[in-house]
Specification:
Chain lengths: 301, 639
């Protein structure tokens, strides 16, 4: 008897199935590209799904203007190399008002430059389906989200009113103005992602690998001084430390971990032996209980 | 995190190599909060070290705040995701959990056990290969146990684990355990399981969860985790005939034409003869194309792209199949249906069904019976309500390719979508096709609709008068017919009340009966249209969807909706038949405008009101409109 597919091959096939369904059933899909490792996997799967053709949708990055510089370099390189049509959207309104994490706090910054900006972009380009790289194992509120997650005309998510999803059959019917968020890697765990990146040799932003980087310790988090927009508090001096990032976002909001892991196997090893979850490095989750659920209802990815 | 393996620290490369060979098992847990289900899953996650320290800290603080274990760690809190649920202390939807051991990765569908949530259990069961059914050892087999078993079996799960939990509370009594197991076997003989494994457990204390328990020396079977690691789920999908529902036609340039999809069952090799189910055209597989190179063989579950030897017409929705083992292909079939929406199933109402990548308009033509999910008894019924299960005949507007679900769990399954709200309202599994569909052919006549209408110097049409009771529909329709008759036009009126005396005298006023009422009237009107007649239909027809149904029966331009837009106050004031008074007094139930809604037409072809114009004036406006639409002029069809 032929052995069944391994778990990674099954997950891969399931994701490709979802990506093809979305491309076939919607008029204007877009793949949201956050430049993180999950996005890198998503991009890889999209290339697989339509090979030998290129994916039939653009990539879109909602740029808060506070991303690590290495992320932006990586983004542009990847899009060019694979021939993706890349849309970069910035909330110019927010830029004009000078919104930033240092001056306005993480919550307002995320709200204006990320959540609002995403809505702006979706409205501007009239996308009716947006792929995201969210996984159900990331956070409790995500565990119940559908693969095709329905959004109202105002991009709201209603956790009480989700369409049941059976088998691999997805309901793609929407009215004009409504949209869905599609999550092809819903059933992957952090470990699956890393193993797949290793197995498939998928390029990821170098920030995931340990290197000497200038950091300051602030509120228990190691923040990298990525550019001169970061105001230093009295007594703070950037120190060069061997650090890496388990998750990537706006540099002022993303905590580094001290690490010597400079290869993929070492990263995986470190992750398996560590005792804290990846989202811990993100400020947004700690605000209040159920904060992710609130954000999601408002349209945060 | 993850699982204990010395390899992680000592030989990470060796560990990674071993991980690549892991398989995947999806299972569902069924039981209520009281059975300790959340505790059981929490324990599996905990013992496989999948809980991080920051999550643990949150868990400890939550346990103190809202825990039900007197300040001790409440594993259940790990699972309840949404705030409202946490406060109510219940899980209300399907949540997916993940953990892994050295042998397998597990995806757990965690679903609630309350009766009103059958929908969620069916959803969770649809992708699961194993069902873990929890029983409180103190209570034994309950109604809910039967319900959970029935639903998982209905969705085609073949392997069940009977997790007899809380053994610690009955002093690990073997005779009680044996009694429960015997009773369950007797009940389950009615179901389609191929294996039942009963395990005595205490999820709270950890007995027989991961390690064999010293408290049950009389039990020699596997622990729960050992069983989940080893249970052989059907290789069935691979051994069944080859099926590939086409999702996407891949056409990067003129030289390449590939058909992409996920193989739902069977296997395929270059050179295999395949058939396009709908057209019957055959060809041979040229290449199995993937990003990682062409494959020598592909099996069920793989997402691939096929190229064929011949240029044949194939598009999304086609099912490619093994030429020697074609699936059924029919537009009528019997299916078991699970209803998942607050709006009841209405036989005759047009729905969409999505079966794999195939989509069709369909109606439930005959609800044969309902199944009581608690007792498995068959019950007569005209409609299905939320969480009800029934057996029905379904009639689609085009033939679909499928295998009976019991023969091939990866085929013959579909979701039902409401065409107006777009909600997923139900799910179904095909029992078998109904052959008569292929036998009854529509008779093509030499003298057609156009010819008949032409003879009368008109264009046949339905004038569909809708509006509240007392709006003046019949009065206006009568005047319009008189005018048309005087102009030498051939007309006929179907009046709501009159039809109920004859053709529809077996129907009442429930939602289901109303739909059937409209369907029959629509079909009758359609025959008149075919006869070339201008047909006036006067019906309250309060539901948009039912008017849409009538509209969908005839060709575009043949259905003219006439909305008699007379306000409720005016209608109620007139109350010609005294019905509003009775309805207000509660003597008539489901009265449109009072305790049953009237959905106003949004795009009616003609709108008139008898509140600010006379019936005569309204009739004149309508006739003028018909003139404008070309209904009354000579019409030159292609005869």
């Amino acid at each position: 008897m032929q052995p069944n597919l391994t778990h990674l091959r099954q997950l891969e096939a399931e994701s490709i199935h979802i990506i093809r369904e979305v491309a076939a059933a919607f008029e204007r899909p877009v793949m949201l590209y956050s430049i993180g490792k999950d996005s890198s996997v998503l991009l890889h799967l999209a290339r697989k799904a339509f090979y030998p053709a290129p994916p039939p949708f653009p990539l879109m990055h909602v740029d808060t203007t506070w991303k690590f510089r290495e992320m932006i370099e990586f983004r542009d390189r990847v899009a060019a190399e694979y021939g993706f049509d890349l849309i970069v959207h910035i909330n110019e309104e927010g830029v004009k008002q000078g919104i930033g994490p240092f001056t306005h706090g993480s919550s307002l910054h995320t709200d204006v430059m990320k959540t609002e900006s995403l809505k702006q972009a979706l409205n501007k380009y009239k996308f009716d389906a947006a792929f995201g790289g969210a996984r159900r194992d990331e956070e409790k509120a995500r565990a119940k989200e559908r693969v095709f997650s329905f959004r109202t005309e105002t991009h709201r998510w209603d956790p009480k009113n989700q369409r049941p999803e059976l088998w691999d059959i997805y309901n793609a019917r929407i009215n004009k103005g409504e949209s869905i968020r599609a999550f092809p890697i819903s059933n992957w765990t952090e470990l699956d992602i890393w193993q797949y990146i290793y197995l498939e040799q998928i390029p990821i932003v170098p920030l995931y690998y340990s290197a000497k980087r200038p950091v300051v310790e602030r509120d228990g988090m190691l923040i990298m001084v990525d550019d001169d927009r970061m105001p230093l508090n009295p007594g703070e001096t950037p120190e060069m430390k061997s650090v890496r990032f388990r998750t990537l976002g706006c540099y002022p909001l993303t905590g580094a971990v001290e690490s010597e892991a400079a290869t993929l196997p070492e990263i995986i090893q470190e992750m398996l032996l560590t005792r804290s979850s990846e989202r811990q490095g993100r400020m947004i989750d700690h605000d209040q209980a159920g904060s992710m659920e609130k954000k999601k209802q408002e349209g945060y990815f | 995190m993850s699982h204990k393996s010395d390899l992680i620290a000592e030989d990470i490369l060796g560990y990674l190599k071993a991980q690549e060979e892991k398989s995947l098992l999806r299972f569902i847990t069924c039981g209520s909060v009281d059975d300790g289900k959340s505790t059981l899953i929490g324990r599996l996650l905990w013992d496989s070290k999948l809980i991080f320290e920051d999550q643990l800290a949150a868990l400890e603080s939550d346990s103190r705040k809202v825990g039900t274990q007197g300040g001790e760690i409440d594993f259940a809190l790990l699972l309840d995701g949404l705030q409202a649920e946490r406060e109510q202390g219940i899980t209300i939807d399907v949540a997916y959990r993940f953990f892994s051991t050295d042998k397998r990765k597990f995806i757990v569908a965690d679903t609630p056990g309350h009766e009103q949530y059958t929908r969620n259990m069916a959803t969770g069961a649809s992708t699961a290969d194993v069902a873990v059914i929890l029983i409180d050892a103190r209570k034994g087999i309950l109604t809910q146990t039967r319900r959970h078993s029935f639903i998982t079996s209905l969705l085609g799960i073949k392997h069940v684990v009977l997790a007899v939990n809380k053994m610690d509370l009955i002093d690990y009594d073997q005779s009680k355990f044996d009694q429960i197991v015997a009773e369950y076997h007797e009940f389950a003989s009615q179901l389609n399981y191929s294996s039942i494994t009963a395990i005595p457990l205490s999820a709270l204390r950890g007995d027989n969860m991961i390690a064999p328990s010293a408290n049950t020396p009389w039990y020699s079977g596997p622990t729960l985790l050992a069983h989940l690691e080893d249970v052989q789920v059907e290789q069935d999908a691979i051994e069944k005939p080859f099926r590939l529902p086409v999702q996407w036609v891949n056409r990067p340039n003129l030289d390449f034409r590939g058909f992409s999809g996920t193989i739902s069952s069977g296997r395929v090799k270059p050179g295999d003869e395949i058939v396009v189910t709908a057209s019957g055209q055959t060809s041979k597989v040229k290449d199995i194309v993937t990003f990682d190179g062409n494959l020598e063989e592909a099996i069920a579950g793989q997402a691939i792209t096929l190229t064929l030897e011949d240029e044949i017409d194939i598009s999304r929705g086609d099912v490619l199949a093994e030429a020697k083992a074609k699936p059924d292909f029919a537009d009528q079939f019997e299916a078991r249906i699970i209803w998942m929406h607050e709006d009841h199933l209405l036989p005759g109402r047009p729905y969409l069904i999505k079966m794999g990548t195939q989509v069709a308009n369909a109606q439930i033509s005959d609800l044969k019976y309902k199944v009581n999910v608690n007792t498995l008894e068959h019950v007569a019924g005209k409609t299905l309500e939320l969480n009800e299960v029934g057996i029905a005949n379904i009639s689609a507007d085009k033939a679909l390719a499928f295998d009976p679900y019991d023969e091939n769990r990866h085929s013959g399954r579909f979701i039902i979508i409401d065409r107006y709200t777009n909600a997923t309202v139900g799910a179904g599994m095909v029992n078998h096709s109904l052959r008569r569909a292929t036998n009854i052919k529509w008779q093509e006549m030499d003298i057609n609709k156009g010819a008949r209408a032409y003879q009368k110097g008109q264009k046949s049409a339905i004038l569909w008068f809708t509006g509240l009771s007392g709006a003046g529909k019949s009065t206006v329709a009568n005047l319009v017919e008189k005018k048309l008759h005087a102009m030498g036009k051939h007309t006929y009126t179907l009046d709501g009340d009159n039809v109920r005396h004859g053709l529809n005298k077996d129907l009442g006023f429930t939602d289901a009966d109303r739909v059937e009422n409209i369907r029959r009237v629509g079909e009758t009107a359609k025959l008149f249209v075919d006869a070339g007649v201008i047909t006036l239909v006067s019906f309250i027809s309060p539901f948009k969807s039912e008017r849409q149904l009538a509209r969908s029966l005839v060709e575009e331009g043949e259905f003219i909706e006439v909305f008699i837009d007379t306000p409720l106050e005016v209608c109620e004031q007139r109350d010609v038949k005294g019905l509003y008074k009775k309805a207000r007094a509660g003597e008539i139930a489901n009265f449109t405008g009072i305790d049953s809604p009237y959905e106003r037409p949004e795009n009616a072809e003609i709108v008139v009101s008898t509140a600010d114009q006379s019936a005569e004036q309204a009739a004149e406006i309508i006739v003028a409109k018909l003139e404008e639409f070309g209904v009354l002029g000579a019409w030159f069809p292609e005869i």
